[in-house]
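Hello,

Our lab assistant flagged a job as stuck in the queue for most of the afternoon. It eventually completed. Since we weren't sure the result was trustworthy after the delay, we are filing this so someone can double-check. Below is the sequence as submitted and the structure that was eventually returned. Let us know if re-running is recommended.
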Amino acid sequence: MIDLHTHSTCSDGTDTPFALVKKALAAGVTTLGITDHDSTAGWSEAITAIQPQIQLVLGAEISCLTTDGVSVHMLGLLFDGEHKEMQQMLEDSRDTRIPRMRKMIELLRADGIDISIEDVNRVAPTGSTLGRPHLADALVAKGIVASRDEAFLDLLHNESKYYVSHAAPTPVEAISVIRRAGGVAVIAHPFASRRGEILVPESFTDLLAAGLNGIEVHHRDQNAQEQKVLTDIARGLNLVVTGSSDYHGTGKLNSMAENTTHPAQWEMLESAANARRVITV
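-- returned structure --
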C-alpha cells in the first residue's frame, strides 16, 4: 500500500516521525510519504525507523494562497532537502504562523472564547510547525470543543470569521520551487469543500504550466462526485492520480492508508523527479 501524505509531531501530527513509520508498518504500508507542514524537520528521525518492508518518500506539505486568497496545500515530494531556495520558502512560511495564531486567538477571545497562546504552546510538541490543529487541541484541552474535527467544523474552517490567512507562496510559485529542487508537486485535496473555499477546474491550467505532476484525488474530504471530476481533470491533463490518508494521529478521523495510490501511478510520479530519492534499507 502506498500512502503519500502523513504528518508527525514536527508539524501538527500526534505521532513522532519514528512512531509514524512504525504505525505505517503495522498497517501494511509499503511506501510512506512524510509530509509535515512547511517542514523537513522529521526526515532524519523517520529514516531511522524504516525496515526492509517499507520505503520512505520524504516531502513537505506547503501552505499556499492563490492570488484571490484561496488557501491551497501543495505536496512537494522527492525534492533535494539541501536545496536553499526550497528551504527558504519553507522557513518563510513557518515564520508567519505565530503572528497568524495570535490574531486567530484574539478573534476568538473577542467573542468570549477563553483561549490563549500559552494554551496553544502547552499542547504543541516542541519544535512543531504551529498550525490550526494545535489551536484545536488547545480548545479540546480546555473543554470548549470535544475533538479536532469539531473545532474545525465549528470554529476553524477556512470560511470562519476566526480564520486568518498567512503570507504564503502562490501555488504556481510553490510548484516552481519544488521542481527546481528536483522534486514532484501534487496538489493536496483541491476540492475539499468541507474545508471551505476550493479551487475551480479552470485553476489547473496555470498549475500544469508551472509543472504540476499530480492531483490528490482520493481523500476523505472530497466526496464521490468531487473525486470523479478531479479524476477526469487529471486524465485530461495527463496528471498522476494519487490517494492518501492525510493521517495526523489521534484527534482526527483519518486512518493510516484509508486512501492509497495505485502502484502504476506512483511509478509515473517517482519517475518525474530529477533523481531517485526514495529511502530504503
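-- support follow-up --
The delay was a queue issue, not a problem with the job. The result is valid. DSSP finds eleven helices and seven strands in the chain. Residues 2-93+168-271 form a domain with the TIM Barrel fold (CATH 3.20.20.140).
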